[in-house]
Amino acid sequence: MAKFVLIGSGLAGGLLAAYLGRRGYDVDLYERRADPREANIVGGRSINLAISTRGIHALEKLGIADEALQHAIPMRGRMIHDKSGDMHFAPYDVDPKKCINSIGRAGLNTTVIEAAQRYPNVRVHFNHKCTDVDLDEAVAHLETESGQLTVRGGAVIGVDGAFSAVRQSMQMQISGFEYDESYLAHGYKELTIPPGPDGSWPMEKNALHIWPRKSFMMIALPNPDGSFTCTLFWEFEGARSFATTKTNDDVRRFFGEEFPDAVPLMPTLLEDFRQNPTGSLVTIRCAPWYYRNKVCLLGDAAHAVVPFYGQGMNAAFEDCVVLDECLETFSNDRERAFAEYFSRRKENADALADLAIGNFIEMRDKTASKTFRAKKKLDHVLEAALPGIYLPLYTMVTFTRIPYAQAARRARFQDRIVYGGLVALSILLIAMLLFRSLHALTVMSDR
Ligand SMILES: Cc1cc2nc3c(=O)[nH]c(=O)nc-3n(C[C@H](O)[C@H](O)[C@H](O)COP(=O)(O)OP(=O)(O)OC[C@H]3O[C@@H](n4cnc5c(N)ncnc54)[C@H](O)[C@@H]3O)c2cc1C
Known about the structure:
Elements: E1 3-7, H1 11-22, E2 26-30, E3 48-51, H2 53-61, H3 65-69, E4 73-75, E5 77-81, E6 87-91, E7 100-104, H4 105-117, E8 122-125, E9 129-134, E10 139-144, E11 147-152, E12 155-158, H5 165-173, E13 178-193, E14 208-213, E15 216-222, E16 228-235, H6 248-258, H7 269-275, E17 279-287, E18 290-291, E19 295-297, H8 300-303, H9 312-329, H10 334-364, H11 370-385, H12 393-399, H13 404-446
Parallel strand pairs: 1-2, 1-12, 2-8, 5-14, 12-19
Antiparallel strand pairs: 3-7, 4-7, 5-6, 9-10, 10-11, 13-16, 13-17, 14-15, 15-16, 18-19
């Protein structure tokens, strides 16, 4: 059977190696970092993240969902914190059993790598950094502690994240390769709310907490040890921004003004703010995701999205399922399998990229408004009244495996019907009121 060289053993790389290993392929997985089980390195990405139906399905298909989710914390809705410290809970779905799950990135990464390593035909090599790939030969050039290394596979798969070296090689070697990257004006910084003195959670445990502040926001996800990991999404530049918040007093003033209820829970705020890096948020679109039967991209390497729908990893896991299905269907024609995988995923990755940016505006700005809350309630009423017919967008994206593009189209259609209906109803009510007023006036003038 053909050999696959995988570059990157992040979340998707580990899972894909397990899928390929199960299918009997020879797999060599090369990761630039050290083994995450030997050193606590997660570096540059969130400490915890939300996994939902699509991601869980991919784990289930490999039989590792229970193992992966054993320490995950269900989050049943959004807990909105306003500036006065008041909180409102908005469930994610009309069905209280539907929840997203906060899961530790490092633990999940370890689970998928170990799942891959259970197959004797999968080998994982840490401290191997890919510098470039020769596409025609399916040869990857790697840097190791002891020097340069060249490895050849039947195919090389780039699962090396948003700043993929494999994708860069495709950009350089494929004429007409389409590439677009766009950065948000916002960066992010992770901060900590430690556990309460008795090891309990100092805020509601089963919720994703949001402090929406129009142009920026902070969120917090629970961890199993009683702590929360907060992420501040804030403008890089501007009058009030990361750039202008330099001193401890600046940080104290900003947090005191904007997140007064969180500050007493954040004893290490000043150190965290100073020491933790400020990350950037990028959307990457490219095409094609494959080159002949030699090279393929998967996960963030193919389609990095901003994190506001909590779907980047879920989508990357869904990629693994689809690529596995395509390799099964076209087991004798790998180029066809890659082409089919690309055509099934590309439109959906593009749709997710747009949805994720849209959800940033929803989370930071609209979640605080009464109209938004009314719209969510209406969504839930319609979902309960029309089961299987009306599905809110969030439900389709998070709690089903309806392809993202189809979910987006269906939500637009539903909105047109619902809002069109509401407008028609309003016009009818106004017309009835006018008619009654006119009628009353006529009766009075007749007297
Ligand atoms: C702040 C934040 C919060 C997020 N929250 C969520 C969430 O709640 N839910 C969700 O579904 N998604 C979330 N995401 C998105 C999620 O992190 C990514 O979509 C997911 O990590 C993609 O997995 P990946 O394996 O494709 O890439 P990565 O996880 O980035 O893994 C890439 C791997 O490749 C390795 N690598 C890179 N370059 C090389 C090289 N040259 N040679 C060898 N190895 C290399 C890296 O070291 C890494 O191990 C979030 C992202 C951010 C930034």
